# Entry
Amino acid sequence: MEPSSSLLPKDLQRIYKSLRLIRRAEEEVARIYPSDKIKSPVHLSIGQESVAVGVCDVLGRNDAVSGTYRGHATYLAKGGSLKGMMAELFGKDTGCARGKGGSMHLIEANANVLGSSAVVGTTIPIAMGWALAAQKRKTGAVIAAFLGDGATEEGAFYESLNFASLHKLPILFVCENNGYAIHTPLSKRWATEHLCARVATYDIPTFRIEDGDVFAIRNVTAWAVDAARKGAGPAFMECRIYRWREHVGPGDDYHIGYRQKTELQPWIETDQVEKVGTMLDAADRTRIDKAVEKELAEAVAFAESSPFPKPRALLENVYAG
# Structure
């Protein structure tokens, strides 16, 4: 899909910068990871950036997102601090969770990035609760709840769909369906692949984006967010996508044998980072690329130079005395 005619050159530049920043940040994480400076496992979303960018480009500052443990893209696309994320991965006190959460537990209250979680499906009902609060307070805000295809196998997913539809909550459910739950493909987990049809039984509008097209994702999000603000209730979007790297870690995992590298090639050919980049004036693209590299270098230097938490931090921000 081509960009909407309403998008201006500055909009394309913004979308490209977000895509490029996420791609380069995760490539840098992959480069640093073998040094053991990064203190937590990492689940990279290289190849999946267009989902977070397409959705978050529509959301306003007062809108929110909830993420998954593969959440770097969601965090950065919604305006999370790159310095805060890098410091968190390094286990530093200046991290977005003060070095206690690591890669799978990113949070940025100032950008309405709700904390992500390593436990599959657990952020879905939390997002629903946020939507309920927004509705009761009449804020006009909307939340996008990101989830993987594996999370659709959790009971909380269906309970949340039912409650959100029943109460017409302002929430967009966004399924990043990369076809695998760790190493298990859909064919070994689902009786059918008609996920949208299952969701539609809750009287929720559903949309399926087959190719990760950032503009198609953005267009659906714009419609869903506008409808939610007007009280229409939730919507659901299934984005078929493909992760280029291994389930957890910086490398690839084709040698394991559960998937073949031939699956990757079509996604490289339709890489959204490159696709949007080619739509820009060459000078603008070069300027953005340089700005991204500068921001990334500053974030890594910040993480390197930041202090580790003091031992007393173990007793701070806890619920028990």
